[in-house]
Design goal:
With about 140 residues, the chain is α+β, with helices and mostly antiparallel strands. It is about 30% helix and about 35% strand.
Length: about 140
C-alpha cells in the first residue's frame, strides 16, 4: 500500500467512524493486507478491513465510504469483496459490529443479508454496539 493511500485510509476511518482508538497511517500500512480499497483518481473513496477470527469466522471492520461517494453502491461492493476474501479463507460465517443507531450501516448490512445477533453496552464509547452476522456456507 502506498503511504499516501495509508494516510487517506486512516483519515477516512477516523472521519466516518466513532472510534475509541484512532487509526494512524502507520497502523494501516503495517496491516495493509487486511484492507480492501476503492480508489478514484488516486483518492481512497472507500475501504473496509476484513480479518480472520477463527477457522469458521471472519470479521468485517469499519466499512467506510466518503460522503461524496455514498449512494453509488460502493459499500455494497466492498461488503461483497470482503465476503469473497472471507470465503477464500474458509469462512462459514462473517460478522461485523455496528454502533446502534448508525442507520446507514445497519441498512447496508441488512440489505446484504446480515442479521443482528446480539447487542451490548460499550463502556469505552458510552454507547450500544450490535453484532451482525451472515452465514456464508449453509449446511448441505
Amino acid at each position: 500500500m502506498l503511504e499516501r493511500h495509508a494516510e487517506q485510509v486512516a483519515a477516512l476511518l477516523n472521519e466516518r467512524n466513532h472510534l475509541t482508538v484512532k487509526y494512524t497511517a502507520e497502523k494501516v500500512r503495517d496491516e495493509a493486507e487486511a484492507y480492501l480499497l476503492e480508489i478514484d483518481n488516486d483518492v481512497v473513496v472507500g475501504c473496509v478491513e476484513v480479518r480472520y477470527v477463527q477457522w469458521y469466522q471472519w470479521e468485517i471492520r469499519h466499512l467506510s465510504v466518503r460522503s461524496s461517494h455514498e449512494g453509488k453502491g460502493l459499500g455494497k461492493r466492498l461488503i461483497q469483496q470482503a465476503e469473497e476474501r472471507a470465503l477464500g479463507g474458509g469462512a462459514r460465517i462473517v460478522q461485523c459490529t455496528i454502533r446502534v443507531g448508525n442507520i446507514a450501516s445497519e441498512e447496508s448490512f441488512r440489505r446484504s443479508g446480515y442479521r443482528e445477533a446480539c447487542c451490548f453496552f460499550n463502556a469505552r464509547s458510552g454507547g450500544y454496539i450490535a453484532v451482525w452476522q451472515k452465514v456464508l456456507v449453509h449446511r448441505s
